[in-house]
Amino acid sequence: MKTNQEEELIRLNKFISHNSRYSRREADELIKEGEVSIDGKVITDLSTKVDKYTEVKVKGRTVKIDNSRPSTVIVYNKLKGEIVSKKDPQGRRVIYDTIPKKYSHFIPIGRLDFASEGMLLLTDDPKIATALMTSNLERVYNLKIEGNITSAMMQAMQSGLRIEDSKEGAYEESDIDSMEFSPFLWFDIKTNAPKFSKLKVAITEGKNRELRRFFAHFGSKVMDLKRVSFGGINLNNLPSGKVRYLNREEYQNLRYFVKGVEMQADDR
Prior knowledge:
Elements: H1 4-7, E1 10-11, H2 12-18, H3 24-32, E2 36-38, E3 41-42, E4 49-50, E5 56-58, E6 61-62, E7 73-78, E8 107-109, E9 117-123, H4 126-133, E10 139-146, H5 151-159, E11 161-163, E12 179-181, E13 186-191, E14 196-203, H6 210-216, E15 222-230, E16 233-234, E17 243-245, H7 248-267
Parallel strand pairs: 9-15
Antiparallel strand pairs: 1-4, 2-3, 2-5, 5-6, 7-9, 7-17, 8-9, 10-14, 10-15, 11-12, 13-14, 15-16
């Protein structure tokens, strides 16, 4: 059984990324170059884990966790063609090129791929980010796919599916071969036609390009993918490329959820 302190340990690159201007990729490079120290000792092991009590320094400067202010969560309507990362080695546009600079230290809660758009939650609190990313909260998407929605697709959406070779629909460099898909919470077919079909689906997971892999298994390419809701927080009429704060009810529901996660962890 893990202690509370063990449960709070996170990878060093994640700690640096969550609490500084560096991305995880940049943090890895800094670690390898000997620019990171823990409690006065230079660390070059990328698998190192730390907790909130560890003194971490990057280039001699302490990485500080600011617990003096309340946590903030924002909703961002992600544009197509943006990468959910602080920087992209290929020079492509990232979400931080669009969102206001005052949110540059915020952590994205989950991912939307380059070709996808819609709701992306960001927070300045790593605890909230972890709780939401690892949750089974409802995620709702609007999809446009090539061809008809077949009876085999509907059966798999209702019953779940395991794919031994899930390379179709994935990134070329992905090393994930097999993938198991839980039953969808629900789906609503808007149009079903030979050229393209539209549907709305709700799932509880956020695996790597999950929906694209799912429909690719049936020979159908996802033409458009837009997330419109996460955990009861809705995109509504937020314009593309814009951000908003959660409203009072959304914040209250979020606090209840995170507190419940913490209580479950304490009971383990």
